[in-house]
Amino acid sequence: MSPQRFVTYTGPACPRCGVPIALDRITPGEDICTVCRGFFTAAVFRPPSHVTRVVQLGAEGPENASACANHPRNAAVTSCERCGLFICSLCELDLFGGKYCPACFDRMTQEGGEIQKSIRNWRGLALGISLAGLLLSSLMIGIPLGFLTIYYVIRGFRDPERSRDQYAGLIIAFFLAIGDIAIGIAMFSEFFLK
Amino acid sequence: MTRVKRRYLGRFGDLASRTSIYERGNAIEVDEQDAFHIRRRRVFYEDVQLVTMHDSVGLAGIFFGFGIATIFLLLAFAMGRDAGWIMAVAAAPFLAYGIARLTMRDAIITVFGRRSKARIRFTLSPKKARRIYDELCEKVRAAQSE
Ligand SMILES: [Zn+2]
Ligand SMILES: [Zn+2]
Ligand SMILES: [Zn+2]
User: Could you tell me which residues are beta bridge partners of residue B38?
Assistant: First the structure.
């Protein structure tokens, strides 16, 4: 999955009109956007830069701003795109066209990170297929599509990542599937059992 | 890989996409849905730079409420005195919903991280929005002071 959407993300912005705003220019509490004149409530944070922490750890080595954070004797060739850590060519890791330090690389690949991860949408599949079955039920395709829907509904409920907000959609899909199958069977008996 | 249970926070939908937003451990998780797939990404609390909350008119909800109510009311007039009142009664909750959405604005929370953002819309629940906003700010503060 290409991370294209993130190229368009430019950091803190007015939540109403989307115009980028520097963090120092935001008043915590109530603020007004200078462009759209809209009000919003804001809380500003200064995420600790991981750089300083590591430089302190390696302070015993030669004090050099452009040394690799993990290898004080190596010159840094770039900085990590996520945490800004200076890294040497040994530490530099590629992920979706970006350069990351080993810690961030591990985190992003193991936990899903900010890199997009594609997962089956069981609820979407179940609803889509059951509705298709309803539209095509006069052709008796409703029977297999109904069973396919029930399969997706079961997968949806057994998904370890499921959450309560998806249940309504899955239950609706289940009843639609019963309808698909019932109409399909009615059509079948109409055409073949007479 | 340990699996931390996640908590549903809310949704956000616009013309471009539909997303569900969850809290999982030390991050906000954003599931962006299309018909058959979910694209999942995270905004870590320790990467958050800005959290905002603002109000917004929920046009879709207003149109939905008044639209359905109008259809029922038209049916009520078409059916006349005998059965029309049934349709009028059916129109009432949709009318009430439309008026509620018109008078009570939605609250939208936006969390800006270093690399991506997450957005949640709260309809007819400004208190819940405020609670989640305070809670998110508190968690970001805790994560960043470690
Ligand atoms: Zn603005
Ligand atoms: Zn890093
Ligand atoms: Zn290195």
Answer: A119, B33
